[in-house]
Amino acid sequence: MSHPVELVQAVREGQRLALARLLSLIENEQPQGEAALSQLYPLTGRAYIVGVTGAPGTGKSSLVNEIAKALRAKIYPGLHASRPPGVAIVAVDPTSPFSGGAILGDRIRMRDLAGDAGVFVRSMASRGSLGGLAHTTSSVADALDAAGFEVVLIETVGAGQAEVDIARHAHTTLVIESPGMGDDIQAIKAGILEIADILVVNKADLPGAENAVRVLRAALDMAGNVGGAEAGWQVPILQAVATTGQGVQTVVESLLRHREYLQASGLWRERGQRRVAAALEARLRDRLAERWHAAQPDGRYRDILARIVRRELSPAVAVQEMLEDEPAPDAVERHPAERAGARR
Ligand SMILES: Nc1nc2c(ncn2[C@@H]2O[C@H](COP(=O)(O)OP(=O)(O)OP(=O)(O)O)[C@@H](O)[C@H]2O)c(=O)[nH]1
Ligand SMILES: [Mg+2]
Question: Lesser CB count within 10 Å: N end or C end of the chain?
Answer without folding.
Answer: C
